[in-house]
Amino acid sequence: MGGNVGVRLKRYEAEDAAAMFAAVRASVASLSPWMPWCTPHYSLHDAQLWVQAQSAAFLDGTAHEFAIISPEGRFVGGCGINRLDTLNRVANVGYWVRSDEQGKGFATAAANLAVSWAFEHTDIVRLDVLIAAANHASLRVAEKIGARREGILRSRLFLQGTSHDAVLLSVIRSDRAEPSA
User: Fold this and answer.
1) Total structural domains in the chain?
2) Of 133, 137, 140, 177, which cross-links 165 as Cys (Cβ 3.0–4.6 Å)?
3) pLDDT (tens digit, 9 = 90+) per residue, 124-155?
4) CATH number for the domain including 111?
5) Overall pTM surpassing 0.85 (yes/no)
6) What is the band of 177 on the pLDDT scale with cuts at 50, 70, 90?
7) Could you tell me the residue range of the domain that residue 42 belongs to?
């Protein structure tokens, strides 16, 4: 999959674990406040297990996670569709970018690609974006992809031992549909 700023998404493969591990470890300071899995103890084994689980989840349709690849072919983060609720045709979209690649538009481009992929390849009608209220950079990304703010959920996220309010945003399939002729 391609996109603006030259970023592309690809399904995770076993060989992505080492690059993912390096990206996470290089980005603990910027990611750990918002990503509960991102800790100084994150290991190569953790990355390997996660990549392996995502391959199985993709095949059985329970999650659709992608590696974000820069125009130069470098692993710069992850983006995906997860927490699928098939009964209600709702899922979550999430994204992260390694700290030395933040601010270059990769998260926005990747999230746009993931949303488009979800609406083209699944019957999902709503994608939620749930972001800690203090995570301003992630909120900007969500707004740039056309997610609409729906409200503040009090004490919705528990991050690094503390409850945080979260902003709930959504992207609806019909909002992204091409106008009919």
Assistant:
1) 1
2) 133
3) 999 999 999 999 999 999 999 999 999 999 99
4) 3.40.630.30
5) yes
6) low
7) 4-176
